[in-house]
UniProtKB/TrEMBL annotation:
Gene Ontology CC annotation, any one: cytoplasm
Name the UniProt record assigns to this protein: 3-dehydroquinate synthase
Domain annotation 3-dehydroquinate synthase N-terminal: ranges: 62-174
Domain 3-dehydroquinate synthase C-terminal: 176-316
Native species: Polaribacter porphyrae
UniProt lineage: Bacteria, Pseudomonadati, Bacteroidota, Flavobacteriia, Flavobacteriales
Family annotation (Pfam families): DHQ_synthase, DHQS_C
């Protein structure tokens, strides 16, 4: 599988990538190699990874607790302290080995430590392979508010090795599938149709095409001024729903993909009401989502709290919530203004 060249770094695929990682380490003469893991990737992924790392440099492991609830500045401080205590300097390299939390947080930690050290992303979940590891976004949450603190910073390299997917649960695979659906609806309907028809589903090909799409978009708009906003389809309302469940003591947290899947159904409905997306296509999106994800009915008494969380979305300007909506499949419109009553209507549509 060929390498995808991003703006300043390559995305390599499969086992041959590790030779290139070893060459990177050798050529840059790094002082120390830090590997960031959580308890899950430490147990299941690190043993698969470490035999592939050919280097005589000092290797130090740093482990954090898994889960979105730990994607915060407090965890970052713990990692920064660990790197400092272990003798990290500007010639250190940080390797992130994990899912979206490890990737987002690790990139942010590396980019800020001593004003920036090099890092390499090795995603181990479908979500991080097709989304978080590529594109140069790093960051952490502020309370339950998603990705409020962060910056754009590119890794030296990304290694996508789908053998790590044997270590994750079916629920995590479904979480990553939501991002592939997003790419399909906004950019390449063939991807969506493959999932809808459940035919010829070769995970390597789905991953490669998703990374290819994200890279094509990011190359044209690295700082999300225009085109890159399409990657937020389903995320405006989806992030608010994810945050609401995260802060609710009486509700089980949703995975990122589960929340985004709900968001895509709701935002498809908004597209039909504001831009004329056909009812047939809206229903198709809903049917596909409900064929993959368990139904999580949104309680009417929670609608206002979810809508209130929308005001913290990063795409907002002057307090106005901006949505990415669809004129049609593969035909999008950015910076759409949506009345609050229609947002509530979209959640009622999902519940029906």
């Amino acid at each position: 599988m060929k390498t995808i060249q991003a703006v300043s770094y390559p995305v390599h695929f499969q086992e041959e990538s590790y030779v290139l990682l070893s060459n990177l380490i050798k050529n840059n003469n790094y002082s120390t190699i830090f590997i960031l893991v959580d308890e899950n990737t430490m147990e299941h992924c690190y043993p698969k990874f470490i035999p592939n790392l050919k280097t005589d440099k000092r290797i130090e492991l740093i482990e954090i607790e898994s889960g979105e609830i730990n994607k915060n500045l407090e965890t970052c401080i713990g990692v920064w302290n660990a790197i400092t205590e272990l003798g990290g300097d500007r010639k250190s390299l940080l390797i992130t080995l994990g899912g979206g939390v490890i990737t987002d947080l690790g990139g942010f930690v590396a980019s800020c430590f001593k004003r920036g050290i090099d890092f390499v992303n090795i995603p181990t979940t479908l979500l991080s392979m097709v989304d978080a590891s590529v594109g140069g976004k790093t960051g952490v949450d502020l309370g339950v508010l998603k990705n409020q603190i962060g910056l754009f910073a590119n890794p030296q390299m990304v290694i996508v090795d789908d053998r790590y997917l044997t270590t994750v649960t079916p629920r995590e695979i479904k979480s990553g599938t939501a991002e592939i659906i997003k790419y399909g609806l906004t950019y390449d309907i063939h991807l969506f149709n493959q999932i809808k028809d459940n035919k010829d589903l070769k995970i390597k090909d789905l991953i490669f095409r998703s990374v290819e799409i994200k890279n094509e978009v990011v190359l044209q708009d690295p700082k999300e001024q225009n085109l890159r906003k399409i990657l937020n389809f389903g995320h405006t309302l989806g992030h608010a729903i994810e945050s609401f469940y995260l802060e609710s003591e009486d509700k089980e947290n949703l995975t990122h993909g589960e929340a985004i899947a709900i968001g895509m159904v709701c935002e498809s409905y908004l597209s039909s009401q504001l831009l004329g997306l056909s009812t047939e296509k809206v229903n198709t999106v809903k049917e596909v989502v409900l064929s993959i994800y368990n139904k999580n009915n949104l309680l009417k008494q929670d609608f206002s709290s979810i809508v209130n969380l929308l005001k913290h979305d990063k795409k907002n300007v002057n307090g106005q919530v901006n949505f990415v909506l669809l004129n049609d499949f593969e035909d999008f419109k950015i910076d759409c203004k949506v009345p609050e009553d229609l947002i509530i209507e979209s959640m009622e549509f999902y519940n029906r």
